[in-house]
């Protein structure tokens, strides 16, 4: 049993007869009244995100998890397939268990959280950033750079990302997985 001072990003807890992963939290200590913790929780079974507020010192039922490195293999019609990099066992996960499935490239190494009690996978943590190749984008208009102008681009996984005007097809770009936003162009 943990309490609200143990809340951190990525912590898995039992709440409302389900297991949730904390994706955002904020400790609030107002000038008047008791302190509390505002959280955003993502269900590991359905993928639904809810907002919840815990009062300070509230007991929470945390779930013991182990982390293992898995390599993304492929996606079929209803699931994503991963292989453990240590013992080569394979698992299938539903799309709801992934935070950014549209940024997942075959061969990518991810961290999978596994429930210690029943050895079932809970969720997938993507690396902080991924490097993907731009497969389609419109050419930038010269002289249209008064402000930080962006244009839509499609990357090799099919995801759409807003990029600066100087990015062209074939360029490799670094994308922040948490926000799905452009970080920088990768020079080779």
UniProtKB/TrEMBL annotation:
Pfam families: EFP, EFP_N, Elong-fact-P_C. The keyword Amino-acid biosynthesis does not apply. Pathway: Protein biosynthesis; polypeptide chain elongation. One of its GO terms (cellular component) is cytosol. One of its GO terms (molecular function) is translation elongation factor activity. GO terms for biological process: peptide biosynthetic process. This is Elongation factor P. The gene is efp.
């Amino acid at each position: 049993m943990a309490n609200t001072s143990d809340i951190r990003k990525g912590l898995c807890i039992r709440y409302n007869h389900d297991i949730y992963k904390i994706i955002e939290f904020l400790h609030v200590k107002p000038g008047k009244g008791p302190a509390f913790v505002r959280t955003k929780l993502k269900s590991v079974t359905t993928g639904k995100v809810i907002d919840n507020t815990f009062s300070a010192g509230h007991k929470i039922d945390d779930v013991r998890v182990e982390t293992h490195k898995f390599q993304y293999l492929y996606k079929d019609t209803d699931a994503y397939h991963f292989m453990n990099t240590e013992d080569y066992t394979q698992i299938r996960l539903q799309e709801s268990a992934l935070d950014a499935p549209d940024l997942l490239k075959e061969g990518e190494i991810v961290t999978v959280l596994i429930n210690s009690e029943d050895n079932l996978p809970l969720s997938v943590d993507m690396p902080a950033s991924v490097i993907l190749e731009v497969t389609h984008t419109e050419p930038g208009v010269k002289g249209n750079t008064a402000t930080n102008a962006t244009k839509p681009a499609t990357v090799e996984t099919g995801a759409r990302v807003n990029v600066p005007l100087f990015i062209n097809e074939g360029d490799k770009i670094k994308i922040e997985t948490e926000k799905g936003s452009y970080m920088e162009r990768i020079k080779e």
